[in-house]
Amino acid sequence: MQDFTLLFLHLSLLIIGSTASPVSQFSPSQQPSHRSFMPNFRWMYQQASAPSYNSYVSDSHVPNLYNSESQTSNFYTFQTQPSNSYASPFEQSRHSFYDLPSASHFLSDSEDIVDVSVDDIHTTNTTMNHCNCACGQVDRKQRIVGGNVTKLHEFPWIAALSKKGRFYCGATLIAKRHVLTAAHCVEGVNPKDIKVTLGEHDRLSKNESVPVIIRKVKRTIPHPDFSLSNFNNDIAVLELESGVDFEAPQIHPACLPEDNDANYIGKNGIVAGWGRLDERKPTSATLRKVEVPILSEEECKNVGYSAQRITKNMMCAGYPEGKRDSCQGDSGGPMQILSPRPGKMEVIGIVSWGRGCARPNYPGVYTRVGNYLNWIHAQLGDDCTCNL
């Protein structure tokens, strides 16, 4: 009888194992041959809807797998490349690992991306509604020495998005009732679950020198041609339930580019956010920034990414040796440059995706905001952007 009971239990366990959830955990030795993952890193397997590939979503609890020097000094991600090297590293959005939407997945180099031209996706000529208010103001007294920010609220247009109380993405204030972010930050997310925090510097501090402003989201407007299968058109506008007073000293809107044909090649873009200090560390409590050189489309297509991965709606920025980059949690946040207009900055990119963080030959990839100016203004309704 005892032997029969043991046999029955053994068979039951086999049956349970064979009918388990399609979300399964892989050990490094079990990982598929076409992709190698980090040692001891927990992964969940998710069957993708398309039959040509499988997608992988990182688990929300990420262990610290290696020691990597990260010199922060109030500057965003001075990351030294770890000594570990991995073949075929993964690609991912710069969404916080703490709260990835279940639909997110990572792309393989074998996937084809249909590059839709700018003219094809932005055919509507929209009258741009401007207000007589100031945007993108830079504090002329501010000094940045060796990349170290010496003043709070340097970028008063940066917002933090939280879902059910948990920070997960960045955004940019562009009008009194609208912020700009990445489409993958809001895809499949109920607007009622999102809150936008403005005037934030230290997310964990309860004693900010100036009170933050929190707004609920009325609706999310991801670009209609965005798809998680390729991250092309990774841009969204969020309408707030109530407007923001620009008289607040720590909150001002960003300037959008005046020219969608502007050439940024060789210029240094400044990316800011509360993202991870490296791939395996938690998101940052304080707002940080990094300055990275902007590459040409040709340069971007000749780095580690396959050429078909990069579309005309994307731009790359980073160093050949890695060194500095945006990281998970920075998604949706701005890349900005000094504007041709004196004393101002303008937002030219949105943190979108990349392969790991600060890896040699894999620069960060950003949504090119200038390609969407008509579309952005079409979503604002009677709201207006500042032009002073």
Automatic annotation (TrEMBL):
Signal peptide positions on this chain: 1-20
Any one Gene Ontology molecular-function term assigned to this protein's record: serine-type endopeptidase activity
All residue ranges annotated as the Peptidase S1 domain in the record: 144-381
UniProt cross-references to InterPro entries, sorted A to Z: Peptidase_S1_PA (IPR009003), Peptidase_S1_PA_chymotrypsin (IPR043504), Peptidase_S1A (IPR001314), Trypsin_dom (IPR001254), TRYPSIN_HIS (IPR018114), TRYPSIN_SER (IPR033116)
Domain of life (superkingdom): Eukaryota
Keywords, ordered alphabetically: Disulfide bond, Hydrolase, Protease, Serine protease, Signal
GO process annotations (BP): proteolysis
CDD domains: Tryp_SPc
Transmembrane segments: none
Protein's name according to its UniProt entry: Serine proteinase stubble
